[in-house]
């Protein structure tokens, strides 16, 4: 993964902020802050866990592209409140979807076999924070 | 490879203990188990080696490689060897911490002298996060049952939980390791654990508190105490069985004092978490009879005027 493309991720962050805005929550600051710090954390972890290093742009790019299901979740929050059972289940499914796809890309790009769940767990925590932002 | 039989995992408890007691037999130096092994593991790639395979590998590759200078502790590569674990290894270590067996030291049996920092770090993070979330959830659930209770999200609990858990998981192993190093002179046979091994088994021993904390959401007091006692028993048993081979050669007094101090600190942590994050909410309209005056109560049980409706509306904007 030599090309780091940040246009897509930034577009998805803005889309997430826009869909949250539609639901009445102005939280662009939280989104940018959490993305930045979360990417930093995952960057540190991946550099520790993989034998070849990874650049920050690559991490930001992958995490940003895998944020798309979260945009779907916050879009659906416009039509019905997510604070019931169905909202919780949907949020959990979306978190698992995001983190599994992000970890799959990291595993294949950095050649770390047998560590997919170990990478998926921190990604799930990060996307869980985004889901908390969306649901509450 | 010719040593295919050796690569199969055999349950040789005696052998494990003997290997630990006579460290000259192994090719890893006691004081620095990381240097030749850590580099072998990184070079081999998957890092899934256990016991016999590691010694065979490091025998051969130590001859081929020159000893490389240890990277400083401020670089990434110093810490890379501690994150060199597979999912299956982490899951195996977690299972080992959940089911302690007498005579099986966690360090010798599961860590096999290759401590990792991934497990302890994420277990502490998860525990802190789960404590804060369930602490808030108990008040939410109590409010659903009894609308006179006023709830506001307590974000400072995340900070408190984080600081407490991380301090416990690092400072207590530090003190324990320092004490064991000091008593090293008394022991002839087996070397004490390294600092990272101590941190590692303390971290994994905290894992059982994660499901316990989630189960503490059930608002039945005797059940909460039962779960707490069960978790504490399992966790403390794991710690005691791991420390027993080290302290049994010391004098009785020191050994019993050390083990009881370890169990006591663990119990204090469990009870502190229970009381701080799960202040028992009485079912009647009584003031909470709770002791810790340094904590500001998150529950106001006096009947409140209609103001909470407005604050509820404002709170949703957050």
Essential attributes:
heterodimer, A: 136 residues, mainly alpha, globular, B: 318 residues, 14 helices
Explain this structure.
The complex is a heterodimer of chains A (136) and B (318). Chain A has one domain. In chain A, 76% of the residues lie in helices and 0% in strands. Chain A has 6 helices and no strands. Chain B is built from 14 helices and no strands. Chain B is mainly alpha-helical. The interface between A and B is medium-sized, with 16 and 21 residues. Chain B: It comes from Myotis myotis (Greater mouse-eared bat). Chain B: This is Protein YIPF. Chain B: Keywords: Membrane, Transmembrane, Transmembrane helix. Chain B: InterPro entries: Yip1_dom, Yip5/YIPF1/YIPF2.
Summarize the structure.
Chain A is mainly α and about 140 residues long.
The tally of strands of chain A reads: 0
| Terminal-residue CA separation of chain A | 35 Å
Sheet-strand content of chain A, in percent, reads: under 5%
N-to-C SSE series of chain B?
HHHHHHHHHHHHHH
Rg of chain A (C-alpha, Å) = 15 Å
Number of strands of chain B: 0
Mean pLDDT of chain B: 70
Main β sheet profile of chain B: none
Radius of gyration of chain B: 24 Å
Count of alpha/pi helices of chain B: 14
Dominant shape of chain B = globular
How many helices of chain A in DSSP terms?
Answer: 6
- The multimeric state of the shown protein is heterodimer
Largest interface: A-B, 16 and 21 residues
**Outline type of chain A:** globular
Low-confidence stretches of chain B: 26-58, 283-314
Q: Roughly what percent helix of chain A? A: over 70%
In terms of structural class, how would the helical and strand content of chain A be classed?
Answer: mainly alpha
Write the layout of secondary structure elements.
The complex is a heterodimer of chains A (136) and B (318).
Chain A: H1 7-22, H2 28-49, H3 56-65, H4 68-76, H5 85-110, H6 116-135
Helix pairs in contact in A: 1-3, 1-4, 2-3, 2-6, 4-5, 5-6
Chain B: H1 4-7, H2 13-21, H3 34-44, H4 51-64, H5 76-80, H6 87-98, H7 106-111, H8 118-145, H9 156-182, H10 195-205, H11 209-215, H12 221-247, H13 252-277, H14 307-315
Helix pairs in contact in B: 3-4, 8-9, 8-10, 8-11, 9-10, 9-13, 11-12, 12-13
């Amino acid at each position: 993964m030599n090309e780091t493309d940040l246009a897509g991720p930034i577009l998805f962050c803005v889309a997430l902020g826009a869909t949250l805005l539609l639901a009445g929550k102005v939280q662009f600051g939280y989104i940018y802050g959490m993305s930045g710090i979360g990417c930093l954390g995952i960057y540190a972890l991946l550099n520790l866990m993989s034998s070849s290093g990874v650049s920050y742009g690559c991490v930001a790019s992958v995490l940003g592209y895998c944020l798309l299901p979260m945009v779907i979740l916050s879009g659906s929050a416009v039509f019905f409140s997510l604070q019931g059972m169905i909202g919780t289940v949907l949020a959990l499914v979306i978190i698992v979807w995001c983190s599994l796809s992000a970890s799959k890309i990291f595993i294949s790009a950095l050649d770390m076999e047998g560590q997919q769940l170990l990478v998926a767990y921190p990604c799930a925590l990060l996307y869980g924070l985004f889901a908390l932002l969306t649901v509450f | 490879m010719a040593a295919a039989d050796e690569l199969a995992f055999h349950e040789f408890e005696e052998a494990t203990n003997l290997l630990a007691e006579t460290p000259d037999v192994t090719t890893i130096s006691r004081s620095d188990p990381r240097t030749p092994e850590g580099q072998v593991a990184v070079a081999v790639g998957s890092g899934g080696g256990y016991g016999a395979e590691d010694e065979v590998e490091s025998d051969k590759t130590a001859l081929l490689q020159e000893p490389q200078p240890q990277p400083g502790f401020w670089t990434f590569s110093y810490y890379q060897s501690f994150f060199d674990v597979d999912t299956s290894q982490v899951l195996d270590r977690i299972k080992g911490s959940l089911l302690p067996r007498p005579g099986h030291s966690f360090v010798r049996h599961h860590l096999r002298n290759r401590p990792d920092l991934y497990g302890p770090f994420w277990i502490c993070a998860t525990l802190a996060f789960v404590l804060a979330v369930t602490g808030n959830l108990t008040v939410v659930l109590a409010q659903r049952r009894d609308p006179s209770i006023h709830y506001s999200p307590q974000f400072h609990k995340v900070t408190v939980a984080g600081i407490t858990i991380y301090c416990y998981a690092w400072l207590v192993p530090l003190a324990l390791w320092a004490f064991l190093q000091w008593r090293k002179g008394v022991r002839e046979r087996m070397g004490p654990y390294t600092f990272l091994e101590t941190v590692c088994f303390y971290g994994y021993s905290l894992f059982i508190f994660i499901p316990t904390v989630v189960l503490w959401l059930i608002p039945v007091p005797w059940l909460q105490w039962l779960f707490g006692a069960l978790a504490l028993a399992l966790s403390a048993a794991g710690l005691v069985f791991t420390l027993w081979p080290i302290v049994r050669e010391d004098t009785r007094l020191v050994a019993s004092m050390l083990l009881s101090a370890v169990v006591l600190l663990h119990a204090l942590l469990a009870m502190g978490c229970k009381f701080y994050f799960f202040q028992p909410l009485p079912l009647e309209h009584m003031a909470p009879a709770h002791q810790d005056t340094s904590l500001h109560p998150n529950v106001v049980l006096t009947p409140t005027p209609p103001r909470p409706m407005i604050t509820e509306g404002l709170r949703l904007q957050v």
